[in-house]
Every structure is written in C-alpha cells, then in structure tokens.
Design a protein that fits this description.
It is built from three helices and four strands. With 93 residues, the protein is an alpha+beta fold. Strands 1-4 form a two-stranded antiparallel ribbon. Strands 2-3 form a two-stranded antiparallel ribbon. Strand 2 and strand 3 form a beta hairpin. Helix 1 crosses helix 2 and helix 2 runs antiparallel to helix 3.
Length: 93
C-alpha cells in the first residue's frame, strides 16, 4: 500500500492535489515561518533530503508533473512528513 500527503490546492501542471512536501519546501524558501517553527520544519526537510533520493522530475521546475507516493512501510519518512503537517496548516490558516 502507498500513502500520499496532499493539500487542498490542485497543481495546474500535474492536475492533482499539490503534495505537502512541495508546499513545505516553498514555505521554507519563502521564509513564511520564523523562529522555532522554521528551525523544526527545516530540520525535517533536511532529514528527508539526506535520507532518500529525490526523483529527477522534481529537479526540473519547467516540468513539475511528478507525484510522490510513499510505501506504507517507509515509517521513518512518513513520521517526518507527519511532523511537517502542523507547520503547513499554521501558515495556511
């Protein structure tokens, strides 16, 4: 089984709900969070970057049609993604 974490915004290029990681990376780059929230978000994003290979499709801004799913056995990765959710929700609300 696979899991996907999304937000309620449809990505115009892929035609599906935008993934939580894309939103989280954008929040970090745009410095939408400050203080301990930014430090915590960045630590989870850094762990994810160090822990698995990002598919090439996500490195090409002109072709961001990739959709990322995680195997439900990828418990460590999923735990970090779940820890990111409150940060995204805080900025979205």
């Amino acid at each position: 089984m696979f899991k996907r974490f999304v937000v309620g915004h449809i990505n115009k290029q892929s035609g599906v709900n935008q993934g939580i990681l894309g939103v989280a990376y954008r929040l970090s780059l745009e410095e939408k969070l400050t203080g301990s929230d930014k430090i915590d978000l960045d630590s989870h994003l850094e762990w994810l970057m160090d822990s698995f290979t990002i598919p090439d499709i996500f490195d090409k801004p002109d072709s961001l049609k990739g959709v990322c799913w995680f195997k439900d056995t990828a418990v460590d990765i999923i735990d970090h993604v779940i820890a990111i959710i409150p940060h995204v929700e805080r900025v979205a609300s």
